[in-house]
Design brief:
Elements lengths: L2 H10 L89 E7 L3 E6 L12 H11 L8 E5 L8 H19 L3 E5 L2 H8 L7 E3 L2 E6 L2 H6 L1 H14 L6
Parallel strand pairs: 2-4, 4-6
Antiparallel strand pairs: 1-2, 1-3, 5-6
Amino acid sequence: MNEAQRQSYLKALGLTPWVARGPLPGAAPSPLLDWPDPDEDVQPAAPEPATARPVEPAPAETPAPEARQAPPVPPERVAPPEPAEPEARPSPSPRQGQGLTFTLEAHLGSNTWLLCAQEDSQAPGLGRFEAPLMANLLALFQGRPKRPRRFFCPLTEQPMQAEEASQALSAFVTGLCEQAGGERVLLCLPESLGEALFGQPRYQPFELGGRPALVISSLAEMLAEPGIHKKASWQAMQEHGFHGD
């Protein structure tokens, strides 16, 4: 089969024939073909005589079948994330490596300052159940709830370690007593906070700002376990002379 016939068959099969019109660098010269210009009208070729032996067309190259794609692997079923535990409420307890964070509300009886730790240090005041209990304690020292003074730790955005917080609290108590009077200080604090500030267990007397002081259970502890914390606090108050003014 000559090249013109081969190209004709390839075109009939839908394959694009191509022959270089000019010599290519480094390639063998292409044969000159009697190929009609695509822009000119193409006349149908005359049929070959019947006696001519028909030339079988060259088998067209069958495109290789595309590789069968494997069925998509279903993604692993991932268990839904467990619901996050609710954030713990702010606590006046010391936080390791971050200094201390707590808020004290201060009220004056006749001669005793009552300083109570807020269960939520970020709240504007004592809770709805803490406030009545504080009022009952204050009545024992012949005082009435008024606009309280507050001690915030840390005093600024910088964290305060226990020693710094203890010194700041001592200065705060000294200022209270000099401005408004008062001879003793009763503090209602969580056990961990009391030990961090003063380096001793609760229910033992010591001095704070040059005044006798005593740490008893926090208001939240008295509300949660009154049989334990109210009893222990009352016994310590009586034993060390903090039972009333």
